[in-house]
Amino acid sequence: MSLIEPLQAADEDALAEGIARSSRPGFVRTAIAGNRAALVGLAILAFFVFVAVFAPFLEPYDPTAKTGPVYDPPSSAHWLGTDDGGGDMLSLLIAGSRVSLAVGFIAALVAILIGGTVGILSGYFGGKTDTVLMRFTDYMLVIPDIPLMIIAAALFGRNLKNIIVIIGIIYWTSTARLIRAQVKSVRERVYVKRAQALGAGNRRLVFKHVLPQVAPLLIANTVLMIALAIFAETFISFLGLGDPSTISWGRLIENAFTGEATINNAWWAIVPPGVCVTIVILACTMIGQSVEDALNPRLAVGHLSVRRFRVRTLDGKAGAE
Amino acid sequence: MVKRIAYAILTVFIAITLNFVLFRALSGDAVSALRCKQCSKAFKEAQRRDLGLDESKWVQYKLYLADLAHFDLGNSVPSEKPVRGELIVPIKNSLPMIALGTLFAIVFGTLVGVVAAWRRGTFADKGGLYTALGFYSMPTQWLGLMLIFFVAGAVGLPTSGIKTPTLGLFTDASTWEVAVDRFKHMILPALTLGLVLYGDYALIVRSAMLETLGEDYVLTARAKGLKNWTIVRRHGLRNAMLPIITLVALSLGFIIGGSITVEYVFSYPGLGLLTVEAIDKRDFPLLQAIFMLLTLSVIFFNLIADLLYFKFDPRVTT
Amino acid sequence: MSVREPVIRVEDLHVWFELPGGGELHAVQGISFDLHEGERMGLVGESGCGKTTTILGMMGLLPATASVSGKVILDGEDILARGEDSISPHRWNDISMVFQGAMNAFNPVKTIGEQIAEPMELHGLASGKAAQGRVRELLELVGIAGDRANRYPHEFSGGMRQRAAIAMALACSPKVLLADEPTTALDVMVQAQILELLVKLSTTLGKELGLTVILVTHDLPVVAQVCDRAAVMYAGEIVEMGGMSAIYHDPRHPYTRMLFAATPDLFGDDEVISIPGAPPRLDRELVGCPFRPRCDSVVEPCATVHPRRLQLAPGHEALCHLNDSTATEAAS
Question: Is C80 within 8 Å of A311 when comparing Cβ atoms?
Fold first, then answer.
């Protein structure tokens, strides 16, 4: 019995309603395509991924080199000015996108893999497996995430790989909960039971029947997890626990802080990295939210509206074709 | 309901145990992390014996529990002073700041969320939604820096610490002046925390209200002839309050974690900053205590959320 | 025979819904009928034929994406004339509704009593103790013990909630009661009780309450049991309307005939009607008779000319070319 059960029960009802819709092929595509905010989000994300992938070609200068005076304001030579070491801000920003996005995507993947597996195992097998896994998840949920993350980061060395693993290990729990609820609903559906009766093995059932149904929710969750992971990386970097050999947006923000950019009036060192992080997280949130909203049918119906239905007069013959 | 309280107590117990396992096992040897000039090998051995770290883990565990029963949280390794004492002032500093920020977030988040849902599709909705999303997506520390850079100077608010150093130095400062000074130092950190939380809460409230407004009984209310705002107030709010209160209560347990970066940016001497310093100095007993405090607060707020649900939802009877 | 004025008259009601991708769904296409005091009319058809939209439209409970045209005349006033403004004063007072799935029509965190009293207080009919008294009366009327007014919806069984919903609909003594699938999702025994209740309410008490009922359902036996008249809907239009026995013994539209002849689906969940094929899409203009693809008695004009409303006997009309020679144009 979890401490947050009533909420879970309500969620499960809503999720079950959404199942029928999500099983239609191309659900995610339709959900995103139909939502303008989500499309904008997708475009933004695509843009940043592009920048990250082609970073070395896009950087005007070598980000680690001193190419100008310290805290030089934006100029034609340096579009976004320089930082406290004379490095070009624009190049730093572009270089930083690689690490920030990479950490975001990979850490999110780790979290989803762990959470998804736990959720599927728990929801599908039920019984003791479920109880044990859920108890374990409950306890993990009770541990304060950020302090744990910071302590782990401080202890286990400051390299990128460890940071990714730490983020993944701390954030898998919400995914597990969500996926478990949906898997439980899916399991009840008739055809899964029929396939079982015909002797299909568990593995086959999970991959062919359960997974496709759970996919939309997983995708929505992954995108939201990416946002969370990027967020987490900025926290870790800000406290000086990031990987010193890499450039990330989080480290740029930290640099602005320790390099006293405020005192030097160097807004160009403070504003851009944070704006990038905010925009990417916003984009991810909009994409993930649109899929989640599409899964919840009750959000679509609104019985109250400021606008009212219109009364009109028919022109032409009544019932004309 | 008794069941839930019992369950919470069980969780507390397990949390305490896990806390022990985590820190004793992790630290390997807290003493070995000591960085000080006179820490020769012999000295460290003596320390170990002193702190009982040379005994078996099981004995250590029993000692740990016994100490806890007496509210003895051990001694801070670097300073050798009791941990308990070290915690008091930071907590006293953090609490008002966090309370201020949370209050701000709850009030504005609820306001914006309700109006956005009620006037769905209009400018009010979109405006509220996107400001909430915006603040929600900002890294807390960056928002803090932005506030320091753009707001503090303009409005004349201090940007670090908890009191002006010169206050009370040359002339006696009245309690009122001290209070105002304290308050001025609290505003920006509280605002930073509050804005990010506001984003979160506004989104939650809006979602919950929208869902509630799609329920059948809202259509029934409309059919009875009730006006929109009455429906929102009487049927919408009352029902949406349930998931909202629960989610808010749950998030309260994790607020200290969120305040860590805020306090770091503003050099605000609260629990968050203490945590960072403790990590820096590898002060494991202190960390263990803080961690336990945080975990306990999460469990506590989970229980509160549960009890609130129990009180306000007539469908829940166990 | 005296000609009484109809309690409610619907004239050429149309409802359109805006579609998300552009375009419109013409959900209700020119519905017209009169109802006299005490009559019980069944509105029958497959899901999606527009019957629920019709009664929602009569009460103005349409979403912002909808537009309506036509008249709904109650007491000599066209309550639809100015949309929401002209309709809302009449809601519950003169015309009320029992929704489909009444289980969810109740707010789970308020007592049944509170919710039944709510419209009374709103429309200034009673408040406080008086309202509470009336609530008990209403509950007793529908067969629920009066002291259960202080219970919450989840403490009532499905059947009881349905009755409570009927009691709630009667709170302001309306002239017209619209019942949308009042017996779906209830087991047979409970169904029978609810139907009995509806008959009792509009006949014996109909003399005092003068209650007129429109019963919307896809379940033919229900209509046959409870109603004096039936209107059969297809693709947003009334394709046949008349007295129960006329419709049953002498159906003048192939759809009506096929409905009565269709075997109930024993293995399905709740769809009793099973005629092969599917209703036409309503987001585009149709040529000819909308039922033609599924009809077993197609004649030459069906493909190109939309049938006219033809009166076959007093009170019996149908929308089918098969009647062209024998009938006269129905009065609109």
Answer: yes
pLDDT at C236 over 80: yes
User: How many alpha carbons lie under 13 Å from residue C257 in its C-beta half-sphere?
Assistant: 13
Q: Which CATH code fits A4-308?
A: 1.10.3720.10
Does the pLDDT at position C271 exceed 70?
no
Residue type at B27 in one-letter notation: S
Contact C324, C301 (CB under 8 A): yes
Asked if residue C238 lies in contact with residue C31, where contact means CB atoms within 8 angstroms, the answer is yes
Lowest mean pLDDT across A76-85, A173-182, C248-257: A76-85
Domain range summary for chain A, segments of one domain joined by +: 4-308
- Alpha-helix runs per DSSP H in chain C: 51-59, 84-87, 112-122, 128-141, 158-169, 188-202, 206-209, 220-226, 244-249, 254-261
Bridge partners (DSSP) of residue C189 are none
Write out residues in chain B with pLDDT < 70, as ranges.
Answer: 24-57, 70-80, 167-169, 317-318
Distances (CA, A) of C293 to A221, B149, C258: 46, 72, 14
Nearest CB partner across the interface for A311, out of C83, C285, C286: C83
Residues of C in contact with B219 (CB under 8 A): 61, 99, 105
Q: Which residues contact B13 (CB under 8 A, 6 or more apart)?
A: none
pLDDT band, very low/low/confident/very high, at A104 (cuts 50, 70, 90): very high
**Interchain CB contact of C62 with A (< 8 Å):** yes
Q: What is the DSSP string of B188-209?
A: HHHHHHHHHHHHHHHHHHHHHH
Name the E strands within chain B. Answer: none
Q: Among residues C41, C80, C5, which one has the least CA distance to residue C178?
A: C41
Which residues neighbour C30 within 8 Å (Cβ) at sequence distance 6 or greater? A318, A319, C12, C13, C14, C70, C237
> Cβ of C148: how many Cβ atoms within 10 Å?
16
Judge contact between B193 and B252, C-beta under 8 A.
Answer: no
Q: Which residues lie below 8 Å from residue C215, measured CB to CB, with a gap of 6+?
A: C40, C41, C42, C43, C179, C182, C198, C222, C223, C226, C227
pLDDT, tens only, B177-211? 888 888 888 899 999 999 999 998 999 898 888 88
Residue of chain A whose Cα is closest to the Cα of B203 = A289
User: Which of A15, A142, A241 is the best mutation test for B, with the most CBs of B within 10 A?
Assistant: A142
Q: Could you give all domains of chain C from N- to C-terminal order, each with its CATH number?
A: 8-94+174-331 (3.40.50.300)
Q: Which long-range contacts (CB under 8 A, 24 or more apart) does B290-295 make?
A: B290/A147, B290/B87, B291/A144, B291/A147, B291/A148, B291/A151, B291/B19, B291/B22, B291/B23, B292/B15, B292/B16, B292/B19, B293/B87, B294/A144, B294/A147, B294/B256, B294/B257, B295/A142, B295/A143, B295/A144, B295/B15, B295/B19
- A88 DSSP assignment: B
d(CA B114, CA A3): 27
Given an 8 Å threshold on Cβ–Cβ distance, is A3 in contact with B7?
yes
CA distances to A39, A52, A97, B235 from A46, in Å: 10, 10, 12, 42
How many alpha carbons lie under 13 Å from residue A240 in its C-beta half-sphere?
9
A85: Cβ contacts below 8 Å, ≥ 6 apart: A66, A70, A259
Over residues B63-119, the pLDDT tens digits come to 777 777 766 666 666 666 777 778 888 888 899 999 999 999 999 999 999 999 888
Asked if A248 reaches chain B (Cβ–Cβ under 8 Å), the answer is: no
- Please tell me the distance from the alpha carbon of residue B266 to that of residue A246, in angstroms, as a whole number: 26
Does the beta carbon of C182 lie under 8 angstroms from any beta carbon of chain A? no
Are B225 and C118 a contacting pair at CB < 8 A?
no
Best of B17, B145, B315 to disrupt the A interface by mutation (most A CBs within 10 Å)? B145
Report pLDDT for C43: 93
